[in-house]
Write a structure and sequence with these properties.
This protein is α+β, with helices and mostly antiparallel strands. It has 16 helices and 10 strands.
C-alpha cells in the first residue's frame, strides 16, 4: 500500500491537483491531499471508501467500464457531482481500476491528462499488488518473502505461522527473467500476472512469489515445477532458472541464489535452453565466483575487435569438442584446411599454443566467463 500511496502523491504533486484512485469495483484504494475543488461525492467517497449506488450507476452509464482511454464525465447537480476526468487503469484487456480528477476550477489540460496517462504502468502494477489473493495481507507477504530471500530466518517462521507454507515441506525456488532487454513497469506487471496465475493453479504446492525490478521469483513446496507449465503461464517470453530443492523454507535463500544465477546463465547461453537447473549448469556453475575480468590476456585482444568474432566462435567449438579437428569441421561445415588456418590465426593473435593443455584450459574458461559477462555473444551457427 505504501508504494501505491507514494505513486498517487507524486502524481498529484506533478499535476498540481488532487486525485482519487478506485479499484475495478469502485472501492477507494488511495487518494492524495484534497486541496482543490471538492464536492459531496468526493468527500463521502473518502469517508466511506466507496461511492453510493446511484453515483456508481451514473458513472457506469457514462461508459467508464468500457473506456480504454481517458473520458470526461458530465456533472450531475441532482447527485452533487461535479464534472470529472476518468482515466481507466488497464493492463492488456483487464480493467484494474479508475483514476479520478475533478474537472473544474480549472478543467484539466491536455498536458495534465497526458501526464496522468504516463503514470498508468506504475499505478497498474501497484493496483495489481493490492489485489493479490493471499492468506497473508499482500504487503505482509511481500515483506516476509523479501526477508526470506535475504536469508532472514524469522521470515520463514512468519510465513509458516501464517499458514502460507507448510512447516515440514522442502522448498524449491524458480526465477523467471524476461527476455526483453530493459526492465519496465509493464514487464513487472506481466510477471505478476503470470506468477499469480500459477499460484491459483498450484495451490497444492503452497506457492509464494515476489517480483523484483528485472525478474520474478516463485517458491513452491517440493520439487521443481514442469518447465512447460511455467512458460505457458507467462504473458511474455522468459528464461527460467531453478535452484536446488532445500529441506526447509528457512533455506530458501540458497535455492534463490542458485536459481537467479541459472536464469542469468540461460539468458546468456541460449544453447542451454529456456529452462536451466542449477545442477545442470556444468562448467557455468563452477564459474559463479570467478571474476569476469580475469581472462586469458591473448583472448582480451581478440574480444576487443568485432572482426575476430569468427575466430572466437571457431575456438570455442574446437575446445568444446575436446580439440577434435574432424568434429569441429563437421560442426562448422568448414573444410579442415580452413579450420587449421583459423586456429593458427588464433594462436598468432592470442600468443598461445593450442597444443598446451593449460593454455587450452585457460582459453576455454575465459570464453565461458566472457559469455557470462556479455562480452562474447556468438552468433547462431549452422
Amino acid at each position: 500500500m505504501a508504494d501505491l500511496q507514494r505513486t498517487v502523491d507524486e502524481l498529484a504533486a506533478r499535476l498540481g491537483r488532487p486525485l482519487l484512485l478506485e479499484d475495478r469495483v469502485q472501492r477507494v484504494v488511495a487518494y492524495s491531499e484534497q486541496n482543490g475543488a471538492m464536492d459531496d461525492i468526493r468527500r463521502d467517497s473518502i469517508l466511506r471508501r466507496r461511492t453510493t449506488p446511484e453515483v456508481r450507476a451514473w458513472l457506469r452509464s457514462a461508459g467508464i467500464h468500457e473506456a480504454t482511454a481517458p473520458i470526461r464525465t458530465a456533472g450531475a447537480p441532482h447527485l452533487g457531482l461535479l464534472p470529472r476526468v476518468c482515466v481507466p487503469v488497464r493492463h492488456a484487456d483487464g480493467l484494474l481500476g479508475f483514476l479520478w480528477f475533478i474537472d473544474s476550477d480549472p478543467p484539466m489540460s491536455a498536458a495534465q491528462v497526458a501526464e496522468a496517462l504516463a503514470a498508468l504502468p506504475g499505478l497498474a502494477l501497484a493496483l495489481y499488488h493490492e489485489s493479490l489473493a493471499s492468506e497473508l495481507a499482500s504487503h505482509r507477504e511481500l515483506e516476509a518473502v523479501t526477508g526470506l530471500l535475504l536469508g532472514e530466518r524469522d521470515a520463514a517462521r512468519q510465513l509458516i505461522e501464517a499458514g502460507a507454507f507448510p512447516q515440514a515441506r522442502a522448498v524449491t525456488v524458480h526465477v523467471v527473467r524476461p527476455l526483453a532487454a530493459e526492465p519496465s513497469d509493464s514487464l513487472r506487471l506481466a510477471l505478476e500476472q503470470g506468477l499469480l496465475a500459477l499460484r491459483r493453479r498450484l495451490s497444492g504446492h503452497h506457492p509464494l512469489h515476489l517480483v523484483r525490478y528485472d525478474h520474478g521469483v516463485l517458491l513452491t513446496a517440493g520439487a521443481a515445477l514442469a518447465a512447460a507449465e511455467l512458460h505457458a503461464a507467462m504473458p511474455v517470453p522468459v528464461v527460467v532458472g531453478v535452484g536446488r530443492e532445500r529441506a526447509a523454507l528457512a533455506e530458501a535463500a540458497e535455492s534463490y541464489r542458485e536459481a537467479r544465477h541459472a536464469a542469468e546463465v540461460a539468458a546468456r547461453v541460449p544453447a542451454l535452453g529456456r529452462t536451466t537447473e542449477w545442477d545442470r549448469l556444468g562448467v557455468y556453475r563452477m564459474l559463479t565466483h570467478l571474476p569476469a575480468q580475469e581472462l586469458h590476456p591473448g583472448l582480451e585482444e581478440l574480444l576487443a575487435d568485432d572482426q575476430h568474432l569468427p575466430l572466437l566462435e571457431t575456438l570455442e567449438i574446437y575446445l568444446d569438442l575436446a580439440g577434435s579437428a574432424v568434429a569441429t569441421s563437421r560442426a562448422l561445415r568448414l573444410h579442415r584446411t580452413s579450420l587449421y588456418y583459423r586456429l593458427q590465426r588464433v594462436e598468432a593473435l592470442a600468443r598461445t599454443d593450442l597444443k598446451d593443455g593449460e593454455e587450452r584450459l585457460a582459453l576455454h574458461l575465459s570464453l565461458k566467463l566472457a559469455r557470462l559477462s556479455g562480452r562474447y555473444s556468438p552468433r547462431d551457427l549452422p
